Amino acid sequence: MNRFCTRTLALGGAAALALMTTPALALPQTDTAALEARIALLEAQLAALRSEVQSTSTVQTAQTHALAQDILRIENRPVPAPAAPAPSASADGFRVGQNTLKFGGFIKADYIASSYSGGDPANGDALRDFYLPGAIPVGGSDEGTAADFNARQTRFWLTTDGVIGGRKVGTRIEMDFQVLPGTGDQRTTSPSTPALRRAFVTVDNWLFGQEWTNFQNLGVLPDSADYIGASEGTAFARQVQVRYTRGPLSIALENPETTVTPYLAATRIVADDNSLPDLTVRYAVARPWGEASIAGLLRQLKYETTGAGAIESSTVGWGVSAAAKLKIGDRNDLRLMLTGGEGIGRYVGLNFANDAVLDASGELETIGVVAGLASYRHVWSPQWRSNLTWSAQSVDNDRALVGFGVNKSAQSLRANLIWTPLPAMDVGAELMFGERELESGASGDMTRLQVFAKYGF
Q1: How far apart are CA 179 and CA 197, in angstroms?
Q2: pLDDT for the residue numbered 39
Q3: Are residues 420 and 286 in the same domain?
Q4: What is d(CA 285, CA 289) in angstroms, rounded to the nearest whole number?
Q5: Distance from the CA of 367 to the CA of which of 172, 217, 270, 299 falls in 20 to 30 A?
Q6: Percent of the chain having pLDDT more than 90?
Q7: Helix (H, G, I), strand (E, B) or coil at 232
Q8: Among 343, 334, 341, 413, residue whose Cα is nearest residue 375
Q9: Mean of the per-residue pLDDT values for the chain?
Q10: Inter-axis angle of helices 29-76 and 3-21, nearest 10
């Protein structure tokens, strides 16, 4: 009941009560006139209230009708077409369709000062950018210290990750500028050409594409200023493969390639005659004390030629590699790797030794190698750390087949100090000494100081 109805009933009740409680016959004439005047006044007030109530009701009806029309207009308004979804940003990548897209990498600038006892490598030689033990000059004379500046280790990558058709699918493309020269030189623009490092797709437990060899354990590589660091002592290769991983076990079929030493010649033949892929198997575990792995390699070595004195020979190569990273205290660790086998030269030490040698009758004989590294990492504080690394390789050559001009051994020792002034940024200096010896006993060594600044993103 609204306030107007309440007022009407109240006044009406008062008027009726007044009429009922006043005896009309007993009133004098003057009282009768006064009563009639009061009744007239009450009737006028009732009429005014009735008019006000009717007016208010009319306004409310109009407002209700207008509101109903607004509701109808809103309900009948056409729905706009949804806008095309934009890639959504997250704290870690961008969501595009069913995939999370990520981009990362690092910028690295190096200053390298090197001194060689057996001759100065030519400008542009890979040895001037990173430690390549098989290229240490032997037999020449020292020309003094050579200085080089470069940013060729700069690297970038693009990854995707998502669930497609109920399968977990990921991809990675990674490139750097380390191994391919540019179209100019250091006189003007110091260019470098992007080179493919890794390119693969994973579908659940399967990997297809170019990736680090399954024979290698990346987790034990030393923390070094150099591109690789302990080059002669580590298993190292990137190549196209098909890999299956289930828990700690991974099996891969990898690109085959045979490198051959000709009979009594210190050169290299890169054969392209393999008919079977290389087979690698690795078992890796991670525990509170660190991580460890053991890997095996089985491969076909094959070389064929045509024409006069044609050669058609094949043999079997095999290798085993064990690696571990052991925690020492809360922040320090010891990294170890030991690799050995027959016919695995291109997998160890950047192909320091060949896989096989041809004998006098054109048959392949495997070449044995043993290589290893040990690296101790000490963290002085959250911003400072050091690494001390020793690495070596020894080749079991048959001098009657290879002669005296091939590589016999190599080793290196390096120590560094690295400062992290900002998250993801390192500034450091590393001093190293490396040497190479031939079967003839001739040797050469190099001393290098490398200073770098690196920022990851």
Answers
A1: 10
A2: 74
A3: yes
A4: 11
A5: 217
A6: 69
A7: helix
A8: 334
A9: 87
A10: 160
